[in-house]
Write a structure and sequence with these properties.
With about 325 residues, the protein is mainly β. A six-stranded mixed β-sheet has the order 4-11-10-6-7-8, with no helix packed on it. The longest helix is centred in the last third of the chain and has 26 residues. It comes from Aphis gossypii (Cotton aphid). This is Ig-like domain-containing protein.
């Protein structure tokens, strides 16, 4: 509220007197101007407008406790392909009145709620975005049929009515996850046959289709080894496959009872730190057992020892 009285002035009460011009039924009301000791100040509409304009110049609407306040958005860090999701916008209008709530994906508007409009809800065409108006309002928007085009940053912008038209916003990122199908497993190619010491084994590992791309790791008898080559390939459907190659020079230490266990592990990191849902790791493994010739060599060696022992025994018997 603005005080229309000039500081330092003493305004006298207005008096109304009747002035008679000789006829009792004819009279006029005369308003006397108030008397000021220090300057004159008239409470007119023009003066009030000037004061309001000056107030807008010197006061930031955001500093006023009655302005709309943004609390934050609730956007999941990730969802899975084909799912539906609700994005929440949490704000406090305080003493303001709501004008509109607008949702953006990567700074492009796709949903608008206007409180004073005849049609409260309106969505805009955007590739990959399907808004469900039934379950959307001024505090949330519902999206159906999650797909890779929905990856990105989502922003909620809230605007208040006059006089300040305050606008606040908050944003967060959401990722769409596509895991390999049960039949689309990680595979190891190569490693057939029997290997001897100093041989080189050539192996390829290929992950299932996913988004994001999987990371591949090699293990020999559960101990990690470094690959020789790694790459990811984007497919026509937007998913990725990962390919890794391992060229391993075989040593006697690689075999345990004539077998060497080779594992290729595919890892997909889901989510991000300090976000909901919590981060996870998706892991799938392919295992290959490689045969070594050490088993056959060991059997042959034992057989030769037996023959030598028998021969020696027979020789001793004959001489005695």
């Amino acid at each position: 509220m603005f005080n229309r009285r000039c500081p330092g002035s003493s305004m006298k009460k207005q008096k109304k007197i009747r002035k008679f011009d000789g006829e009792e039924n004819k009279n006029t009301v005369i308003h006397f101007k108030p008397n000021f000791k220090m300057g004159e100040c008239q409470s007119t509409t023009k003066t009030t407008s000037i004061m309001m304009a000056l107030l807008f110049l010197i006061i930031d609407p955001c500093d006023i406790g009655e302005a709309v306040k943004m609390i934050g958005v609730k956007v999941p860090a990730y969802i899975f392909m084909g799912d539906s999701v609700q994005l929440f916008c949490d704000y406090d209008m305080q003493m303001d009145k709501l004008y509109s709530v607008i949702w953006y994906k990567d700074n492009e508007e796709f949903y608008r709620y206007v409180a004073t409009s005849k049609h409260l809800k309106h969505s805009f065409n955007m590739d990959g975005i399907t808004v469900d108006h039934t379950y959307s309002d001024s505090t949330k928007v519902t999206l159906r049929h999650a797909n890779l085009l929905m990856n990105g940053e989502y922003k909620c912008e809230v605007s208040a009515e006059a006089p300040f038209f305050t606008t606040v916003h908050a944003e967060s990122k959401m990722a769409i996850i596509s895991l390999p199908k049960p039949k689309d497993l990680t595979k190891i190619n190569g490693g057939s046959g029997v290997y001897q010491t100093s041989d080189t084994i050539y192996l390829n590992c290929t992950s299932g289709e996913s988004f994001p791309a999987a990371r591949l790791r090699w293990y020999i008898n559960d101990k990690m080894v470094i690959s020789n080559y790694d790459r990811s390939e984007k497919l026509h459907n937007g998913l990725y496959i990962s390919i890794s190659k391992l060229n391993l020079s075989i040593s006697p230490d690689h075999f345990n009872n004539g077998l060497m266990k080779v594992t290729c592990q595919a890892i997909i990191n889901i989510g991000r730190p300090k976000a909901l849902p919590p981060p996870k790791e998706y892991k799938r493994e392919a295992i290959l057992l490689v045969r070594g010739s050490a088993v056959a060599m060991c059997l042959t060696f034992n057989f030769k020892l037996t023959l030598i022992t028998l021969t020696s025994t027979l020789f001793l018997l004959n001489t005695s």
